[in-house]
Amino acid sequence: MVRRLRGAGVLVTVAAGLAVLAPTAEAQVGGGTWTSDSPGYKTQNVGCGSTSGLTFKLTCSSSSGEQRAERRYDTYTGGTHQFEGSFKITSMTGSRISLKQTFRDGSDSGPYFLLAVENGGRMYAVEGGATLGSGATVGTSVRVNTINQVGTSHKVYINGSLKQTIASPSGSYYDKFGSYRTSSGAGPITVTWSGVKFWHK
């Protein structure tokens, strides 16, 4: 006799007196069962960017040149991939700073999705300029999820609510987060990320 019991995040199969535990991963958004990932990353500091753990700073007010402090995660190809993380801006006198990015890699490498914030709390997609939310003010924690179903769609959630769906071409991608001066932006800014997780299915 086989009995299947579902507990808190654990599927238990009991067969002939033998119990087998199979851990499941439940993401905050997107539904279904996900498999946890632990991709590698590189820290990238350019210009007046500096990184300490999960705190990323742009210390200058320059509106030219490359100014960034980021984590760049490993490239993936195909499948469905979810990023989750929360950011809190601890100081910001600049504006139009990108905090989370999904980049294309390989022969089509370059910016694909960039979530940026303006002084005052407006969050927007740099590509196209769509407003994705408000309230990203100093001291407020904001949770961001992106789900990239390669070849189908890329979805952006803010605090659990779906804010944008765009087409996702086939190919290779990678995730980045931190602080990055957009072409129309400037620092200074200090932002701390927490609760960073990755899944695939």
UniProtKB/TrEMBL annotation:
Residues 1-27 form the signal peptide. It comes from the Bacteria. Keywords: Signal. This is LamG domain-containing protein. It comes from Amycolatopsis heterodermiae.
